[in-house]
Amino acid sequence: MKLKGKQALVTGSSRGIGRGIALKLAAEGATVAIHYFQNHQAAAETLARVREAGSDGVIVQADASRDEDVRRMFAEVRDTFGGLDILVSNARGELATFYQAPMDITLQAWEHAMNSQARAFLASVHEATRLMPDGGRIVAITFTPGGQKGSWQSWIAMGAAKAAMEASLRYFAVSLAKRRITVNAISPGLTEDSVLNSLPDDAVQLARDWHQRWTPMGRLGTPADIGNIVALVCTDEASWITGQVIHADGGASLMDTVLPLEMQMPELVAV
User: Which of 69-73, 158-162, 249-253 has the lowest mean pLDDT?
Assistant: First the structure.
């Protein structure tokens, strides 16, 4: 149990990837603050599973896109835990709040995406580091392809917001290094039980079928996969890694979109 005695806050951990992260941190011995925005029942289910894993935690509620909510959430964590060792910034808005094409997107949708990611990350780092007097781990959950490509048209606001968050983490990593606080990001590929499942069922199945062929490991990721990587980054052994975006995508980011798959991996496509 490499995180025994550590205290963690995982935003957006009532379900999906955030839940997978919270459960892995708990299995490694950390006490976990489970954050949710609207679904208290889902947060309670996560906390119950944290306890089944042999750890404990609390539930905190906040709209991560609102500064005053972020301050209140960290005040509750301080009052309960006294300090903090790990912050995982994972929360995002629901698909309907930002999912619009470039020529259709409203300023409100753009602003919400930015506030829920880059702004929330900034506010959370400021608050978390006040509770980290003796080193710590800050991990952001991003989606790097959305900030590098332009093909997933309706992802424009979230892609730009994640890119801004990734840029800011490098500055934080330099600023906080002498305090022994590392700042990194994990970039999952498409993952089961995530934002992907907000899309119609036929689109989700299309993504599964595509990744069976396209991703070298032949499948979508799972919340448990991402939880494993986050836990590794939070260990003492990872203290020399900071300012990095780590791709946890089964090798999907290694593939070249220009060449047909049959030319890149003929032996796998033929199977």
Answer: 249-253
